[in-house]
Design a protein that fits this description.
Elements: E1 8-12, H1 16-27, E2 31-36, E3 47-50, H2 52-61, H3 63-72, E4 74-75, E5 84-90, E6 94-96, E7 99-101, E8 106-111, E9 118-121, H4 122-130, E10 138-140, E11 144-150, E12 153-158, E13 163-166, E14 168-171, H5 178-184, E15 194-206, H6 207-214, H7 216-220, E16 223-227, E17 230-237, E18 242-250, E19 262-264, H8 267-273, H9 279-287, E20 289-298, E21 306-307, E22 310-312, H10 315-318, H11 327-343, H12 351-380, H13 391-400, H14 403-406, H15 410-423
Parallel strand pairs: 1-2, 1-14, 2-10, 5-16, 14-22
Antiparallel strand pairs: 3-9, 4-9, 5-8, 6-7, 11-12, 12-13, 15-18, 15-20, 16-17, 17-18, 19-20, 21-22
This protein binds flavin-adenine dinucleotide.
Residues 12-18, 35-38, 48-50, 142-144, 172-174, 178, 200, 202, 246, 294, 314-315, 322, 325-329, 331 line the site of flavin-adenine dinucleotide.
């Protein structure tokens, strides 16, 4: 169906957030263009896991997104682990304040709903999204540099010297978002992401090797190995052919000086960083292919996600650490709410009303994900001051702490945003 609305939306950035938004906008008959900095759509070769809220949001944006997800989703291998998000176990023995944790103790089987762990290979999922974007909607090599106003139009200026016009600009340009700097202004304390104090090694293992080393249960079903100031998670991707690994550590000085946030690593570096960890964790580290190390940054809360007709979505708005597996899911929820709201706008003069309503509904929830994600890492890494090494207390928290993310009623969220748009015309910021 050809777009019918009397305005055009520029979407800067074609990651999971930007692509889901564009698919939603086109379904709502909103004309739009994606401006992507890279020469083509691309994702890294790693896994990403989605909570049930994210899967429902996909279906609500467009049933074909849910279909594409189904084409590449992998769930836990064992029927009895079908509803399990992660099994938590002790990966490193230790004691603190008179409490001892023993290696391999099973801490919790955390259930996330009837689908349990649902994860994809990022590149495969992105391919499924790209299939839903009609030819001509995306322009590549377009790195946003600035946005100015000319008459009624916003003008996007790109690093390659070209310019384009639009009625609204949605910055989906990730954790180092240029749009965020333009919107908040570069010297705002929330303009740039900050180091969370954690970093992680990422890599993949062919499943047959993982099964040989760990046995069927631990290899084919999602696991988190807990230890003081570190944790290691694994889940199957690629229809069970591959095991995805992320091995987290705490940086004791809390600083990340390297200007690179991602760099190649080695098995030796990982072994040196996980001295004293149990046999299972060390086997996993030894099998990881082409590991990278990632500094984990997140955003201080922005006071607002929009200004005039410029708006932020996904990591550009609320980059989070990955400890609840919820960052991409929040980008998809953003895309749902914003595409529905923009689909109800019938004049460029009302675009700001939609962005204001989006901000009112999406900002509190997505920023809570950022805060609670940091807290989650302290729990997994036995650093939580009131829980420490008390595994029974940890179990009770683990079993319930993500339910508010997973059980969200998205229809109500959309309705609240629609009501906010109907009631509150945008004023000056
Ligand atoms: C280690 C790790 C593990 C994670 N695991 C999970 C998980 O299991 N589950 C989950 O839900 N989330 C996870 N996340 C978070 C998730 O990766 C992000 O939330 C998600 O990818 C954000 O998508 P996005 O589209 O907003 O941004 P991005 O994926 O960063 O996409 C931004 C796009 O914008 C483009 N771009 C950048 N600058 C410009 C510019 N100036 N002009 C034009 N284009 C530009 C980029 O090239 C890119 O294509 C994890 C994150 C990390 C670091």
């Amino acid at each position: 169906m050809a777009p019918e609305k009397p305005f055009h939306v520029a979407v800067c950035g074609g990651g999971i957030g930007g692509l889901c938004l564009v698919i939603g906008l086109l379904r709502q008959k909103v004309s739009c263009t994606i401006y992507e900095a890279a020469p083509a759509f691309a994702e890294i070769g790693a896994g990403v896991s989605f909570g049930p809220n994210a899967v429902r949001a996909m279906e609500m944006i467009h049933p074909l997104i849910a279909k594409g997800f189904e084409n590449c989703v992998t769930m836990n291998g064992w029927p009895e682990k079908k509803e399990t998000w992660f099994d938590f176990r002790v990966g490193k023995a230790g004691s603190r304040d008179g409490q001892e944790v023993l290696i391999d103790t099973h801490v919790a089987d955390v259930k996330s709903g009837k689908l349990g762990q649902t994860s994809v290979h990022r590149a495969h999922y992105l391919d499924e999204l790209v299939k839903l974007v009609p030819h001509g909607v995306a322009k590549f090599g377009k790195r946003l540099k600035d946005i100015t106003e000319e008459g009624d139009k916003l003008v996007l200026l790109f690093e390659d010297g070209t310019r384009e016009e639009a009625d609204a600009v949605i910055g989906c340009d990730g954790i180092k978002s240029r749009t965020r700097h333009i919107l908040l202004e570069a010297d705002h304390p929330a303009a740039s992401a900050v180091f969370s104090g954690k970093y992680a090694y990422r890599g993949l293992i062919p499943m047959d090797k993982a099964v040989d080393a760990l046995g069927d249960e631990l290899a084919r079903n999602s696991q988190i190995y807990m230890g003081y100031r570190g944790h290691v998670l694994t889940f199957p991707i690629d229809k069970g052919k591959t095991m995805n690994v992320v091995a987290f550590r705490t940086k004791l000085d809390g600083e990340w000086e390297d200007p690179m946030w991602v760099r190649p690593s080695t098995t030796e570096e990982m072994f040196a960083d996980f001295v004293g960890w149990g046999d299972k964790v060390r086997k996993i580290l030894g099998l990881m292919e082409n590991p990278d190390v990632w500094a984990l940054f997140d955003h201080p809360p922005a006071p607002v996600f929009y200004k005039g007709r410029i708006c932020l979505l996904g990591d550009a708005a609320h980059a989070t650490t990955p400890h609840q597996g919820a960052g991409a899911g929040q980008a998809i929820e953003d895309a749902l709410v914003l595409s529905v709201l923009l689909g109800q706008v019938n004049s460029p003069a009302n675009l700001e009303d939609a962005l204001k309503a989006y901000d009112a509904v999406r900002r509190p929830r997505s920023q809570r994900v950022v805060t609670t994600s940091r807290e989650a890492s302290h729990l997994y890494e036995l650093e939580n001051a009131s829980i420490g090494f008390d595994l029974e207390k940890a179990r009770r928290q683990l079993e319930v702490r993500c339910k508010w993310i997973w059980d969200e009623d998205l229809s109500t969220q959309v309705k609240m945003a629609q009501d906010a748009m109907a009631k509150r015309p945008a004023g000056k910021l």
